[in-house]
Amino acid sequence: MPARKDGKWGIIDRNGEVVIDFRFERLRIFGNGLFVALYGELYGLVDINGEWITEAVYERFFRPHSPSHLIAAQKDGKVGYLDENGNVVIGFRFAGLEGRAGIHAGLFTFSDGRATVLLPRDGTTFLPISAQQLLALGTEVRIADTIYEWAVINESGDIIPTEQYDRIFPYRDGIAFAARDNRWFMLDIEGKEYPLPPEFVFSEVMVVRSDDGRILRAYFDREQRTGYFRVRD
User: Fold this and answer.
1) Who contacts 74 (Cβ-Cβ below 8 Å, separation ≥6)?
2) Residue in 90, 93, 63, 89 with CA at minimum distance from that of residue 78
3) Please, are residues 56 and 37 in contact by the beta-carbon 8 Å criterion?
4) How far is CA 36 from CA 111, 131, 155, 228, in A?
5) Does the structure show a pLDDT above 70 at 78?
6) What count of other Cβ atoms lies within 10 Å of the Cβ of residue 2?
């Protein structure tokens, strides 16, 4: 686990033995045996031996909610994807977040071979989006009123055709939730949409699946109730 000594960070095991020397300005667990380390003002990935997997040239890394062999990283305000050896496999061409913050969980990460990203609209200047703007999308701010548009990509970086949505939540277990004109839909892995009942008007989506993946529970904003629905075969 990460530990701090004399103002520097390293890694110790459960017995308190030093695994990585205390030489990093900041060190956080990323997953898959990797750690995000701060060097100067930028971040890189190091392994359990303290060896750099990538150079410290990134503004942030995005930790996935589920296992993925592709790592979302941000450089110069743009998001791209690395493999577990630090090689760039999908170029930096998607809109990232403003500022530098080390790790952000869940956003722009792959699950089931799909990732939800933001693209600048054609003819617009490429700018990263603020965290506040991102949270506002699909609620008080429509994506159509911004310079961005949502897109879904596969692990080759190809765009999966989708309708224009005000908000798309990341894929999990082969399903994503998307909103358009105050209606919500489920998207399958190919981007095909399945309308949800009109009462499912989410302010926030919290989905719990049964072991067989057939029952979903969703929190929606009408009196903060919880509803259940079954995924058809």
Assistant:
1) 58, 59, 60, 61, 62, 80, 92, 96, 97, 128
2) 93
3) yes
4) 20, 20, 22, 38
5) yes
6) 16
DSSP string over the chain: -EEEETTEEEEE-TTS-EEEEEEESEEEEEETTEEEEEETTEEEEE-TTS-BSS-S-BSEEEE-SS--SSEEEEETTEEEEE-TTS-EEEEEEEE-BSS--EEEESTT--BTTBEEEEEEPTTSPP--B-HHHHHHBTTTB-GGGSSEEEEEE-TT-PEEP----SEEPPPBTTBEEEEETTEEEEE-TT--EEEPPTT---SS---EE-TTS-EEEEE-SSTT-EEEEE---
pLDDT at 233: 44
Do 185 and 177 touch, CB atoms closer than 8 A?
A: yes
Pairing state of beta strands 42-46 and 60-63? unpaired
Which residues have a Cβ under 8 Å from the Cβ of 207 and sit 6 or more positions away? 172, 177, 216, 217, 218
> Tokens 């045996």 correspond to what residue?
33
pLDDT digits (tens, 9 = 90+) for 93-140: 999 998 777 777 778 999 889 999 998 887 677 788 888 888 777 667
Q: Would you say how long the chain is, in residues?
A: 233
Backbone angles phi, psi at 143, to 5 degrees: -60, -30
d(CA 26, CA 166): 36
